[in-house]
Design goal:
By secondary structure, the protein is of the alpha/beta class. It contains ten helices and eleven strands. The strands form two sheets. Strands 3, 4, 5, 6, 7, 8, 9, 10 and 11 form a nine-stranded mixed beta sheet that branches. Strands 1-2 form a two-stranded antiparallel ribbon. Helix 7 links the parallel strand 7 and strand 8. The model has no long low-confidence stretch (mean pLDDT about 85). This is Fhu operon transcription regulator. Belongs to the LysR transcriptional regulatory family.
């Protein structure tokens, strides 16, 4: 049976990241021969070559690249486990891994969270940015503790806490801003090129079909901030949550609220229902 210990994984990651055994040995504060021995022992135990060695250093083989991903996950999980065990019953110290959707501008940090970290300076927050479904996948794999995501999404087995609900708005470059009023209707979008955030593509398409309009979708992107930037560059009209528009738009565009109630979205704090929040995690939840 193959037995790989955490020290070997840490040594392996150090060499993989440094690209040189000598540099990694210096970072680890050990001599080079013991480090080389540990690497060879790891390769022997796994039965594969992990590095290609050359006078200039080392590079990872395909097997080495795969192990690097798993090793990093294992080392991170061990650190999280150690941290949570130490802070059990107190919640005064430790590391909390928090997923943040790119469109959740302004939700973190809030004033209560700032107060929490000020009173408990040993609390460390690790942020992981991704789209909503990427964060839900991380929660499912226990790679993060909790996440701030945006509706709509389907994910059974999660506890949810609603944070803020907001409407969609149009970020309109001045060359397309021929709308009569400060607010616009969905039908007004039929005659301008649209830039949409992929998370809401299905919602928008369903609405357009119901209203019998077929607007031109000039661009679909994975980050609402990118949609705003493209609107700023006169590539079309971006349809995004209001908070994202207000944070990212500039002098080149105007923000027009859209008069359509179903186009609303809610930021939610989510975590696995099967997981009992640690004291630190509960403090974080209570800060919202």
């Amino acid at each position: 049976m193959t037995v790989v210990n955490f020290r070997q994984l840490e040594y392996f990651l150090a060499v993989a990241n440094a690209g040189q055994i000598t540099a990694a040995a210096q970072q680890l504060h050990i001599a080079q021969p013991p480090l080389s021995h540990q690497l060879k022992q790891l390769e022997s135990e796994l039965g594969v070559q992990l590095f290609r060695r050359s006078p200039k250093g080392v590079t990872l083989t395909p097997a080495g690249k795969l192990l690097r991903d798993y090793a990093q996950q294992l080392v991170d999980l061990r650190e999280r486990a150690n941290s949570q065990v130490r802070s059990l019953g107190q919640g005064l110290a430790g590391v909390l891994s928090v997923g943040v959707a790119s469109s959740s501008l302004g939700a973190t940090p809030n004033s209560k969270l700032q107060t929490l970290t000020r009173h408990y300076p040993k609390v460390q927050i690790r942020l992981f940015e991704d789209n909503t479904y990427g964060l839900i996948d991380r929660l499912d794999k226990h790679l993060i503790d909790i996440a701030i995501v945006r509706t709509p999404f389907t994910a059974p087995g999660l506890v949810t806490k609603a944070l803020t609900t907001e409407s969609m708005v149009a970020v309109v470059p001045k060359k397309y801003d021929h709308f009569a009023g400060a607010t616009i209707r969905v039908e007004d979008l039929a005659d301008v090129p649209l830039i949409i955030y992929r998370r809401f593509a299905q919602l928008f398409q369903t609405t357009f079909a119901q209203k019998g309009i077929d607007p031109f979708i000039a661009c679909t992107c994975d980050d609402a901030r990118t949609a705003v930037q493209w609107a700023e560059d006169h590539m079309g009209v971006a349809v995004v949550p209001q908070s994202v528009a207000e944070a990212g738009s500039g002098l080149a565009t105007n923000i027009r609220p859209i008069r359509y109630q179903p186009w609303r979205t809610t930021l939610q704090l989510v975590w696995p229902a099967a997981v009992t929040p640690s004291p630190l995690m509960q403090r974080f939840i209570d800060s919202y």
